[in-house]
Amino acid sequence: MKTVNIIDGDSYQELLEKIERIDEKLTSILKSKGNQKVWLTNKEVCEILSVTPRTLQNYRDNGIISFSKVGSKIYYRLSDLENHLEANLQESFQKRKGGKRC
Length: 102
Hints:
Blueprint: H1 9-33, E1 39-41, H2 42-49, H3 53-61, E2 68-70, E3 73-77, H4 78-87, H5 93-96
Antiparallel strand pairs: 1-3, 2-3
Protein backbone atom coordinates (compact mmCIF):
# COMPACT_ATOMS: atom_id res chain seq x y z
CA MET A 1 0.00 0.00 0.00
CA LYS A 2 1.44 3.37 -1.01
CA THR A 3 1.57 6.29 1.39
CA VAL A 4 0.45 9.72 0.26
CA ASN A 5 2.28 12.63 1.85
CA ILE A 6 0.72 16.06 1.67
CA ILE A 7 2.89 19.14 1.95
CA ASP A 8 2.02 22.80 1.83
CA GLY A 9 2.88 24.95 -1.17
CA ASP A 10 5.87 26.65 0.46
CA SER A 11 7.43 23.32 1.46
CA TYR A 12 6.80 21.95 -2.02
CA GLN A 13 8.48 24.98 -3.59
CA GLU A 14 11.43 24.61 -1.19
CA LEU A 15 11.75 20.95 -2.20
CA LEU A 16 11.73 21.85 -5.90
CA GLU A 17 14.41 24.49 -5.32
CA LYS A 18 16.56 21.98 -3.42
CA ILE A 19 16.26 19.46 -6.26
CA GLU A 20 17.22 22.20 -8.72
CA ARG A 21 20.34 23.03 -6.65
CA ILE A 22 21.33 19.36 -6.59
CA ASP A 23 20.87 19.16 -10.35
CA GLU A 24 22.98 22.29 -10.86
CA LYS A 25 25.79 20.87 -8.68
CA LEU A 26 25.75 17.55 -10.53
CA THR A 27 25.71 19.30 -13.91
CA SER A 28 28.61 21.51 -12.86
CA ILE A 29 30.66 18.51 -11.73
CA LEU A 30 29.93 16.65 -14.96
CA LYS A 31 30.94 19.60 -17.11
CA SER A 32 34.20 20.04 -15.21
CA LYS A 33 35.08 16.35 -15.54
CA GLY A 34 34.14 15.82 -19.20
CA ASN A 35 33.37 12.23 -20.23
CA GLN A 36 35.63 10.56 -17.70
CA LYS A 37 34.21 8.60 -14.77
CA VAL A 38 33.58 10.97 -11.91
CA TRP A 39 34.45 9.90 -8.37
CA LEU A 40 33.29 12.03 -5.46
CA THR A 41 34.50 12.33 -1.88
CA ASN A 42 32.36 12.06 1.26
CA LYS A 43 32.32 15.85 1.55
CA GLU A 44 31.15 16.34 -2.03
CA VAL A 45 28.39 13.74 -1.69
CA CYS A 46 27.22 15.26 1.60
CA GLU A 47 27.01 18.65 -0.10
CA ILE A 48 25.20 17.32 -3.15
CA LEU A 49 22.63 15.33 -1.17
CA SER A 50 22.48 17.84 1.71
CA VAL A 51 23.05 15.10 4.28
CA THR A 52 25.38 14.73 7.23
CA PRO A 53 28.41 12.43 7.16
CA ARG A 54 26.57 10.13 9.59
CA THR A 55 23.59 9.84 7.23
CA LEU A 56 25.95 9.07 4.38
CA GLN A 57 27.58 6.37 6.52
CA ASN A 58 24.11 4.90 7.15
CA TYR A 59 23.54 4.84 3.38
CA ARG A 60 26.79 2.88 2.96
CA ASP A 61 26.07 0.53 5.88
CA ASN A 62 22.59 -0.25 4.55
CA GLY A 63 23.72 -0.73 0.94
CA ILE A 64 21.76 2.26 -0.30
CA ILE A 65 24.70 3.84 -2.12
CA SER A 66 27.68 1.97 -3.60
CA PHE A 67 31.17 3.14 -2.73
CA SER A 68 34.83 2.33 -3.13
CA LYS A 69 37.34 2.45 -0.31
CA VAL A 70 41.04 3.06 -0.87
CA GLY A 71 42.90 3.01 2.41
CA SER A 72 40.82 5.18 4.69
CA LYS A 73 39.35 7.27 1.86
CA ILE A 74 35.87 6.57 0.54
CA TYR A 75 34.73 7.50 -2.96
CA TYR A 76 31.40 7.39 -4.77
CA ARG A 77 30.68 7.26 -8.49
CA LEU A 78 28.58 10.18 -9.62
CA SER A 79 26.67 7.81 -11.90
CA ASP A 80 25.66 5.71 -8.86
CA LEU A 81 24.28 8.80 -7.13
CA GLU A 82 22.35 9.80 -10.24
CA ASN A 83 20.95 6.27 -10.58
CA HIS A 84 19.92 6.27 -6.91
CA LEU A 85 18.17 9.63 -7.27
CA GLU A 86 16.40 8.53 -10.45
CA ALA A 87 15.31 5.23 -8.87
CA ASN A 88 13.73 7.13 -5.97
CA LEU A 89 12.15 9.89 -8.03
CA GLN A 90 8.60 10.67 -6.95
CA GLU A 91 6.62 12.43 -9.64
CA SER A 92 4.51 15.37 -8.61
CA PHE A 93 0.79 14.80 -8.20
CA GLN A 94 0.19 17.30 -10.99
CA LYS A 95 2.15 15.16 -13.47
CA ARG A 96 0.38 11.99 -12.39
CA LYS A 97 -3.05 13.52 -12.87
CA GLY A 98 -2.32 15.16 -16.20
CA GLY A 99 -1.55 18.56 -14.74
CA LYS A 100 -4.96 19.05 -13.14
CA ARG A 101 -5.49 19.72 -9.46
CA CYS A 102 -8.32 18.22 -7.45
